[in-house]
């Protein structure tokens, strides 16, 4: 930059754990890129943790394609052969058959469920203890050696402890849930509480009997279809190439054979293992992404069944091809029937399409080790004779999506499916939530991120709506287009925002910084609009619509790059949703004509009936708060100025109206409760006064005789009162009379006062109870 050369795009590269200049493999001037993204393992419904990967890299892809102008060959795999798929398909099949087997025999089902949960608790307790032991041992080793790599490994192992503890708690909760439904005789409730534990026991006992390959393919096909539908719902661009493991078996076998031929893999008892030690002796580096994790069996075995094997030459070696086992799908190979290992699948499929060098490889940060490190090792071993020591130039990993302090995960049962999330948020809102967070860091799926997204969406919608409203109110041909200092200032602000956006894009596609730059530009534009509308109302300069449209169009363009807006290049703001103004052509126009006609009828009827001003205003409010809401129009009243309207989603407007009604109802309820409290205290006070005896009776213990004026004349013994005693007695009578006076006054005004007050308190009590 100091030499006058334009700034380069820099990306956070996991291979270096820092931002580095991005240079395509085809050369600095090339616009051609190759990209492989680890796709889904289709064993269950995708959740928001998966969306963190696919949606995040859809945003990065769009920036590279639509902002920087790269042409990308985007390859995604679908893992349809995997330990998780095999296990889930087999267990679901066994569980369904068992449900038929025990139909009508609830005691047998309950006993089996209790035994299964007891087994699950015992196994999970052992896993918790092992996780604690491994973490403690690694922490001790790290403390002794003082190595940063050992410290990171210790931290990673320590993070596994609360995950295993959560699983143990969930197992205990399942046992408690089972006992809670045990007396109901409801089989469905038992399977709901203990289904996973029952399936695990069934699998251990009968798993080897499930031999039909159609069971596994049908399971994978179901969730692959669901995943592709999820991509569409999220608004993600589809890959250019979608690869299935089951369609690349021969390529995987060939890949294994070549690695064996290059001396970096070996066959044993029908399986093939990668030789990590031979690989390193050949001058390669194993564990480029997470070197500190190499040697940890707990981390290396994550997401892979049967990692430990007596056939392996070294503990770090891993399976490229797994010998066939009963209850698993298999294919023929030079080593006998078997199936691919997890890591080899991506290496073989990506290499068959992209060759010995690719620009970008992406996935979640949990894939760094072992999956991506093993991919790199396999591929470098495969291309060893071609001198390959770097199969991938840029490894991009998105941060975990955390919920309640833990990674969102199916195994932890702390997930929100994509479908569930889309029942709460729109796809636009989820995408906006993601661009407000750094793509390479952990993201918390919680109230704070949702609140930030909601506030930013509201800012954008209000800005676009205001610009369009100003454009309707101040036609360019009807106002002066001469700029003053205010316009120059806003124009400068727009330019500065554009520079900030570009710098943020170059800085590893820093989407939060981009959104902050747009937000500052919008705040400045809003301030300008308000000031110019005020001067226009006073007969002065009006807002410069063309300048405001420039700001709005630029914001729209950047949002379009992120996939938040999907509209024409010259459009402004969010597109109209179904049912929103601007989305329905003739049908929408008919709706507005009907609304205007109905409103006119209301006003005419009110006028004929001699309506008061308040009734006419109420009719106007109904048009704003009900009729126009259903038509997707937000009508905003302004003091001493014409109302402005903005198109919006009817569902959003109804939700806002519902919230206003709720607040109004709460305020009314609070007001009525306060009135009830006041009236209840008043009733209690007057009931207390009413119970007081007449003054002569109340003072009988002091005075025995009273005159016609109500004042005492003799003490309790009958002796006349002297002047001093009379004065004291008068004060006591006046005090007693003052206490009784409020009720006497009320009863003089209305003899039914107490009865009416009692009725009012009873009525208010009933109304408060009904609110």
From TrEMBL:
Gene3D superfamilies, A to Z: Cysteine-tRNA ligase, C-terminal anti-codon recognition domain, HUPs
Domain tRNA synthetases class I catalytic: 30-449
One Pfam family cited in the UniProt record for this chain: tRNA-synt_1e
Stretches for region Disordered: 710-734
Enzyme Commission identifier(s): 6.1.1.16
InterPro entries named among the record's database cross-references: Cys-tRNA-ligase, Cys-tRNA/MSH_ligase, Rossmann-like_a/b/a_fold, tRNA-synt_1_cat_dom, tRNAsynth_Ia_anticodon-bd
One Gene Ontology term from the biological process aspect of the record: cysteinyl-tRNA aminoacylation
Keyword terms: Aminoacyl-tRNA synthetase, ATP-binding, Ligase, Metal-binding, Nucleotide-binding, Protein biosynthesis, Zinc
Molecular function terms, GO-annotated: ATP binding; cysteine-tRNA ligase activity; metal ion binding
Cofactor(s) it depends on: Zn(2+)
GO cellular component: cytoplasm
PANTHER family associated with the record: CYSTEINE--TRNA LIGASE, CYTOPLASMIC, CYSTEINYL-TRNA SYNTHETASE
Matches recorded under HAMAP family: Cys_tRNA_synth
Listed NCBIfam families: cysS
Protein name per UniProt: cysteine--tRNA ligase
Origin organism lineage: Eukaryota, Viridiplantae, Chlorophyta, core chlorophytes, Chlorodendrophyceae
